[in-house]
Amino acid sequence: MTGAPWLVVSNWQIPGFDEVLSPTVLGEVRAYASGRSPVTEGPGMTFAVEAAGTSLNVAADRVRVTTSASNTTPVYFAEDAATGRFIVGTDLPTTAAAYASLTGTPAALRDEIGVQEGPLSAVVGVERLEHLVELELRRESGAWQCTRTRQADLPDTPVKFREALLAGQAQVQALRDAIAEALSTAPDVGVLVSGGVDSGLVAALVAETGAPATAYTIGTEWGDEFDHAAEAAQAVGLDLRATTLGADDVVEALPATVRAFGHGEPQTIAIGVALAAFCRGGYAVERLLLTGYGSDLLNSGMATTDEIGGDIGAKVREAVHRTRYSSEFTAALGDQGGHRLTHPYWHAGVLETALATDPAVKTYRGREKGHLRVAARELLPEDVAWRPKTAIHHGNGLGANLDRLVDRHTGTPGGTGLVYRALLASQIATASQNPLALMTGREAYDRAVAQVARASSQHITQ
After folding, report:
1. Is residue 284 part of a domain?
2. Which pLDDT tens digit goes with each residue over 45-64?
């Protein structure tokens, strides 16, 4: 299935988990960890779930979860009110399997397993904690009490930057600071480059630090942006290595992508699977990988040149809010390959600067991200800075071809969502049998495809 690290914490011995794992026991609390280590030790343990601030602290009489404002990596929670038993986990299949083991009720998927903007996860009875939540489970008077507080959402950032060039320069400086912070813990870095202004800026800012760096570009058998990526990499002085993913590479990475996201929303999966396949494939030698992903969300709300007449400010706020539930910025996509996948545009300082920019200047010269483009001319060639936007899953061909691939394998039109559902269900079922069980991505995918094809055939015969 997956070698990605996970953590499950409970106030009860979990049947099926103790047989294969030696939990850390603190009082009544048991922490089952696969590849995930605490960042601090002492009377308790703290696990960093997300670089932006989501963490899980475990002590003998208390478990506390704090989620960040961005909440890009999920933390799941389930409790049995009748017995006072609870589960907290960082991985949906193992969390669902543990909860099913405690309650004696098989895990069941909801009818809708796409991106849920709220506390629901894809599994009945399991909650995905929302952003800015502090959940505390405490042993008091012989029983476990659950309390939670929700901070008020961050207020709208007041507009600070009203002139296009100054706004763009401010964001470039925020990017520079975010990259410096990432590089402070890494001897070298890989930069994923598509050839547009967003990843081009990240590559340029990495190059100006003088740190050992390599540019990488990802294509598939259906499409690539290699020529544009080569132009951007050459302009900033980085060597470029191109990787073409085949259909087998993509399907091998699909189960891990669905698992990391905790849902089966096809468009989001198409965005993440190329990153997952690249990280799993060992194509990059550097542990730290930086991307240009996120700029479209922050600076145009995914609006294209034809759509910029709408309310860019509203589009940006909506796009940013949705990522709190979509998991598309989770670092878990890089975990299986041992990479620290980092998105500088989603650094708190860059987010703050972008949200403090007058939406009107984001359409400077009638182009989406116009303020960033005009500032980028100081670091990139004109044609790179003003290159038309191409969404990541369209540039590599996955947006148009992944659904066709899955439909061809299943023989079922519109089968993609059904396969993702089957992938999630089978990973939960396998975790219920053995939370450490490993299955190749291809094996998991083939099982899911066969299940969907069989169900479709039965439906037709009926």
Report:
1. yes
2. 999 999 889 999 999 999 99
